[in-house]
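Practice problem: predict the structure.
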Amino acid sequence: MRKGIVILIVALLYGCGVFARPDSIVPTTDKSRPIVTLTQEQFDSLVSAASKSTQMELIAKEEAEKLFSDYTTHVNSIIALIVVFLTLLGGAGAFFIPYMTNKRYEEKIDAKINGIQEGMSNHNKKIEASEQALSNYDTKLSGYDEKIANSEQTLSNYDKKLASYDEKIANSEQTLSNYDKKLASYDEKIANSEQTLSDYDKKLADYDKKLADYDQKIAKSEQTMTTHESKLKEQDKAIKEIKEISERFAESSTTVEELKEETNTSELFTQALNEKDIDKKIDLYTQYIDKESKNANAYYNRGVAYSNKGDYDQAIKDYDKAIELNPQNAKAYNNRGNAYRNKGDNDQAIKDYDKAIELNPQDADAYNNRGIAYGTKGNNNQAINNFDKAIGLNPQYAEAYNNRGVAYRNKGDIDQAIKDYDKAIELNPQYAKAYNNRGNAYINKGDNDQAIKDYGKVIELNPQNANAYNGLCYAYLGKKDFPAALEAVNKAIELAPLDPEYLDSRADVLIAWGKYKKERPDEYPDIDWKDNIKKALSDVEKAFSLSPGEELKKMLEDKCAECKRLLEE
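Answer:
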């Protein structure tokens, strides 16, 4: 009895100790397969270890088996106590409850083990895939290693080149430093040179001014040389005639008196060449021709003198005789053409220019004169063609440029006309006619201020140029400066009182001023507009009395009618 009680107490105390520990082993009636109860921490540790690798799985299994072995030994030692405890509790119910508990834990463990195994299987597959990927990466890395090795070799070569470049750069920097020093020296020299150049510029400006003066002198000298060359040619002809006389004297029994007579005749020719007075020149040539009636040059020269005098009919007669004696004399045809043109017979003039060009196709003067004749006839295109030819033969022909400018102005191409006048003035800065014509063109453009400058230049070059004063009159009239316009045209009439054109111009000024005054009674208080119209009518009537040309005559008739109409208002 006492022994049984001791056993019961020991069993109760042990049993209470077992159930008090959370990691106690729960006995099972199935001795062949002990059931182990693990804590969550131990179970998670096993799962974690199993998920790492297959090797960890084996280690986990070994550890589990070891635990099972240890716990089995312990379980076997306490089975008897449990049996006693169960016996004491009595009944089949005490036995059935532990069995069901062990069964439930067994199922959970199996499920977890199956999950662990399935996870490890997937993990193994992932490891295999990772190993394959690592193998591929190793292959790629091997290729990269080779490329890196090549790159390192290339970099090594680049390093060597860079080292060489660094050395060259260092040398270049030294060279540049030397250049900088030289440039600094050059800058100083340049600064000194600029000062010197500034001094030279001032000197050059003085030289330019002197050269301009020299150019003017040269232009005058060239004109003088042209005149002298002409005289020398005439003198050569005279000497040639003297030689011919000498030869005739040597070949015949000419008396001394006859020789003296021929010598005096030659002296007459020379005197005529050098004579400045036109009438005396003509008289000397006449005396010479009376003694040498077969000399074509004498007739030609006397024809030139008559042309310069304005006696174109007598000039044409002398040119006729010169051509008769020398039909190949191109100059005689050209000058006879000029005489016909000055008489207004442009058709006959063109025929003579044609013959002159036929005899001498290089005669720029003949082309220029034929261009003037065509222009006078109103055929400006044909005129321009002839001036172009003259300029082509002689690019320094200032008169041809001036005349072409006139043709362009007559066509209405004012800008091109001004360009030609500019060129004519460039070639001959003393060319008053070109300045005058350019002034006319500027009036056509409405640039009266520039026109006034050009007319002023003409008057500076030739204060007796009535035509310039007439142009100046119209420039001021364009600005409605009536007093200045009247003063200018009065000067033109003073210089050429018998020129109907200037009387017509003054009539224009008076009519315009009278109309202006009529419309603006408060301006010009000392002027009576009707008095101006009466003065204009008087100028028109006086211009009629001076036998104007047909074109001017028609203009005068229109002005006369206008004046009478205004006075009747």
